[in-house]
Q: What sequence folds into this?
């Protein structure tokens, strides 16, 4: 495809038609000039529908490997693993002639209630963006495009089509856009999908600040911006803002509006051509990377390999939350009672557009039988309705009579957690908790297995001897569960999100979800950033997870004690398996500003490493590198990232609440912020600036009376230290008082003209 030749040959009407799809999943072809390519859903598995297309996974799709969902695999903290999953997804796309896979989803977990949290990675943008980059690189290594979504600030399902999300610029940059930024800059996805909602008043698909200023100009993105299905609105405003492709299609009236706008001068031909050029570049990539039929794997061989990978991913992503007296792993021969319908009807994925028609899926009972484990089973509770059924409860109690250990399968059924709606609360269904309480009276150890896509309140945790969170672990989750229960695999996952003690502790609890306008009043304080700042206890902290072994951290070495924000500094430490069985550790690096002048989180994740499988007594040296961005916050006065000179603690630990090693680094910021003072500037802010402080001192010391312009010029250096001291000591000058108010207290010595004259000198 010669793109420039095609553009020159297209009619205006043909150009406009390329800005919409031709069908539910296809771009618009133009006979003899432009072929079509196919996109389809699938952050964690291909969802190519054979028959009538739909958005919510209702109609049957082709068999495909269902990998652990985003929330699950992010608990692995393993960028190599998610790269391999991406590779497998790309191979299955090639097998089915799909050119773009719609994923990954990287929206932040503002609230545990978001119905789509099972699909999103984390509450932390650093972790989310690095896992997303691994996913994208894996998919695109196979010649298939990835589509990062949903850009941006899409954090609830309630009224998602029209909600106006209100967030200040610092919050956007440090949290909600940061989750996209690293992945887009480094992995270069073929497509970026816009969200349905508005951000600060503009729909995402026609948002010049998001699309043109940030995505295109600042981040240098030159790929296609596509709408979520049905998310595009005004076609002319969209093209003007840097938006390219409306899906699904066709939408003739949108094409007609673009043609009319170009003809009457409301939309420039150059803008439309830029949009068409990006769409054609996407189509060209898709066509050129198509594999020949001979190069495609046989489905049987490929699916067997991918199922093995899904099994590994599920085991690596499981999080052991509790293990009293090392009851896990189980011993062979222990008599088990398996309770709960999830053991028979495994919930291994989320609900909605990411539903995958799995190639293979054993339930827990089948997986236990394959492993030669004998057990008794009872349903225990109803899943479709939250009512206590005494017959079900009695059946469960009877099944436990001869058991030594109870495996209780709890979790969130599809009816309370899915795309399209948000959860009403953070609790497990009442009938599940009631059953746990009844079983606990038997005095037998209970191991709780959790199938869910997001945190739940766990005041019941003291009734369980062990808790193993499998999340939505994909088609091999039951097999992975058995491997973990019996020690064939060692749990090494850690939480990519905080589990608060109760919903009311969450920073968005008072205003989530909203139906028209959602004001992000908590700012940058989401997840662990909030709980730590408020010193709130949590059920399980960010980065937490137990193992069947334990690890010792020592020997932290910092390359040097001082750097500038233009330099990179490295640090290393030794991690030793100090236990009796082989295992992997996830090592986390947090940065804590010691004395920041602006409100900042207590600490923030700025690095993580997952060790190789360490045998007992084996040590690995883990290395990190930090650059200027690791210490920066977004300063709205300069519209840029800013590093404040000062000391920063480097904290290395096993979770956000379990810091094992630390060092302190002095960082010098090279970017200077020249303040602009006005009559509205607060006196406290001026006192922090030596030159401005002397101005306040002159006012407080009565030196302003007869000063004319020439005298002010002679005194422009403000040399009088006594005057500065007078300003600092004066009880009459409130730190929060605007400078202009001093005119009222000067007894006529300070006029507005003289105040403006001196402000002009300060702002030179």
A:
């Amino acid at each position: 495809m010669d793109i420039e030749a095609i553009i020159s040959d297209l009619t205006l009407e043909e150009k406009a038609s390329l800005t919409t799809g031709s069908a539910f999943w296809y771009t618009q072809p133009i006979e003899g000039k432009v072929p079509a390519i196919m996109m389809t859903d699938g952050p964690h598995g291909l969802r190519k529908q054979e028959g009538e297309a739909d958005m919510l996974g209702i109609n049957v799709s082709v068999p495909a490997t269902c990998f652990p969902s985003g929330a699950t695999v992010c608990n692995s903290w393993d960028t190599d693993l998610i790269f391999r999953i991406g590779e497998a997804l790309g191979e299955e796309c090639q097998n089915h002639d799909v050119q773009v896979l719609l994923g990954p989803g990287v929206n932040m977990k503002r609230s545990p209630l978001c119905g789509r949290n099972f699909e999103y990675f984390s509450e932390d943008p650093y972790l989310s963006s690095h896992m997303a980059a691994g996913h994208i690189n894996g998919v695109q290594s196979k010649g298939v495009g990835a589509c990062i979504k949903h850009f941006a600030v899409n954090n609830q399902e309630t009224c998602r089509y029209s909600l106006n999300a209100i967030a200040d610029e610092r919050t956007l940059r440090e949290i909600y856009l940061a989750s996209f930024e690293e992945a887009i800059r480094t992995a270069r996805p073929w497509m970026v999908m816009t969200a349905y909602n508005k951000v600060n008043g503009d729909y995402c698909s026609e948002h010049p600040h998001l699309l043109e200023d940030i995505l295109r100009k600042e981040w240098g993105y030159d790929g296609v911006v596509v709408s979520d299905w049905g998310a595009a609105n005004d076609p002319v405003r969209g093209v003007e803002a840097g938006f390219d492709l409306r899906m699904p299609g066709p939408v003739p009236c949108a094409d007609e509006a673009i043609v009319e706008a170009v003809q009457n001068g409301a939309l420039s031909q150059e803008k439309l051509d830029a949009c068409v050029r990006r769409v054609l570049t996407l189509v060209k990539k898709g066509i050129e990377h198509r594999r020949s039929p001979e190069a495609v794997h046989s489905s049987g061989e490929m699916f067997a390999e991918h199922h093995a990978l899904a099994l590994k991913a599920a085991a690596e992503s499981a999080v052991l939350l509790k293990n009293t007296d090392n009851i896990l792993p189980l011993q062979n021969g222990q008599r088990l009672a398996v309770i709960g319908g999830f053991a028979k009807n495994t919930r291994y994925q989320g609900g909605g557009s990411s539903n995958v028609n799995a190639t293979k899926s054993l339930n827990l009972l089948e997986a236990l039988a394959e492993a030669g484990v004998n057990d008794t089973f009872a349903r225990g509770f109803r899943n479709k309705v939250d009512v206590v059924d005494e017959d079900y409860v009695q059946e469960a109690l009877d099944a436990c009579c001869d058991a030594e250990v109870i495996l209780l399968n709890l979790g969130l059924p599809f009816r309370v957690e899915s795309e399209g709606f948000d959860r009403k609360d953070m609790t497990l269904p009442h009938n599940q908790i009631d059953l746990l309480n009844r079983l606990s009276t038997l005095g037998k150890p209970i191991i709780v297995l959790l199938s869910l896509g997001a945190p739940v309140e766990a005041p019941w945790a003291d009734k369980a001897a062990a808790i193993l969170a499998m999340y939505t672990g994909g088609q091999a989750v039951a097999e992975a569960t058995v491997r973990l229960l019996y020690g064939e695999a060692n749990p090494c996952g850690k939480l990519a999100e905080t589990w608060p003690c109760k919903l009311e502790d969450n920073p968005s609890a008072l205003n989530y979800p909203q139906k028209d306008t959602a004001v992000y009043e908590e700012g940058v304080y989401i997840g662990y950033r909030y709980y730590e700042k408020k010193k709130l206890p949590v059920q399980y902290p960010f980065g937490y997870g137990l193992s069947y072994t334990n690890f010792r951290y020592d020997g932290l070495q910092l390359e040097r004690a001082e750097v500038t924000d233009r330099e990179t500094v490295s640090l290393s430490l030794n991690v030793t398996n100090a236990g009796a069985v082989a295992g992997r550790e996830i090592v986390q690096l947090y940065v804590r500003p010691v004395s920041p002048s602006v409100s900042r989180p207590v600490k923030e994740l700025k690095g993580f490493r997952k060790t190789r499988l360490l045998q007992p007594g084996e040590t690995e040296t883990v290395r990190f590198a930090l650059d200027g961005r690791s210490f920066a916050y977004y300063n709205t006065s300069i519209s840029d990232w800013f590093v404040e000179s000062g000391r920063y603690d480097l904290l290395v630990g096993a979770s956000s609440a379990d810091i094992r090693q630390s060092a302190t680094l002095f960082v010098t910021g090279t970017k200077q912020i020249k303040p602009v003072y006005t009559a509205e500037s607060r006196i406290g802010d001026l006192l922090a600036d030596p030159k401005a402080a002397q101005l306040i001192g002159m006012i407080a010391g009565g030196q302003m009376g007869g000063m004319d312009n020439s005298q002010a010029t002679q005194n422009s250096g403000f040399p009088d230290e006594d005057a500065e001291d007078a300003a600092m000591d004066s009880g009459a000058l409130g730190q929060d008082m605007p400078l202009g108010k001093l005119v009222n207290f000067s007894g006529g010595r300070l006029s507005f003209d003289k105040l403006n004259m001196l402000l002009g000198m300060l702002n030179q």
